[in-house]
Amino acid sequence: MSDLEHAALFEDQLLDGEEILWTGRPDPSVNFDRRDLTLIPFSIAWAGFAIFATAGFVVGYGEAVKSGGQPGSFLFLVLGAMFALLGLYLLVGRFFNKRWNKLRTYYALTNRRVLILKTGTTPTVSGIPWDKVPGIGKAQGFGGTGTVTFAKTGRWKTDHGNTGLEFFTLLPWGKVTAFYDIAEVDRVYDLANELGHQRWRIP
Question: Do 50 and 114 reside in the same domain of the chain?
Fold first, then answer.
């Protein structure tokens, strides 16, 4: 899909006098970023412990039933299975979710707002006016891509976007607006700063 086709997706969302200056989308071929340096070891530890503990409980439960003894609570088996499934999601499943999110996401910078479009059964568009953007940051990623953030992060604000763990962003301190894994990250960052400064009336 070309830039013109990307722009056409946003046409119905534009305000009077609003003009699209850049459009793009996250690169679905980029699977990892720097956050995975901590997330992957944590996922391996979680999944390994949960699977090992659940398997041990299943064996003990089965042997107790066979011998006519008193098996442990079935609730522990259910909880163990849930933790094991969560571990597998952290280790593998979140990457499929991450790719699926990328394939339905489009970004745009206009003279008035930062826009993010999610396509699908019920398309959604979120936008931030430039005078409401608290800060603009840039992080160089892998494979020549990078991320531009439109938020200030801090001790109580953790970015779970683009990790497959977006459900954590339901918490108000976990939500960050960002363009993830985009090409031309330097150009987009410079354009965003230029537009932001004009809106904020910074000389």
Answer: no
Residue with tokens 């604000």: 157
pTM, 2 dp? 0.81
Q: Are residues 125 and 185 in the same domain?
A: yes
- Distance, in Å, from the CA atom of 201 to the CA atom of 203, rounded to the nearest integer, reads 6
> What range defines the domain where residue 181 resides?
3-29+104-200
Note whether 111 and 21 are within 8 A (CB). Answer: yes
Per-residue pLDDT of 78-90, as tens digits, reads 777 888 888 889 9
Cα–Cα distance between 78 and 53 in angstroms, integer? 12
Query: pLDDT (tens digit, 9 = 90+) per residue, 85-120?
Result: 888 899 999 999 999 999 999 999 999 999 999 998
Q: What are phi and psi of 72, to 5 degrees?
A: -70, 175
Of 112, 174, 113, 187, nearest to 146 by C-alpha is 187
- The more confident residue out of 155 and 36 is 36
Buried b (16+ CB within 10 A) or exposed e, 46-84: bbeebbeebeebeeebeeeeeeeeebeeeeebeebeebb
* Helix-then-strand count for the chain, H and E: 5, 7
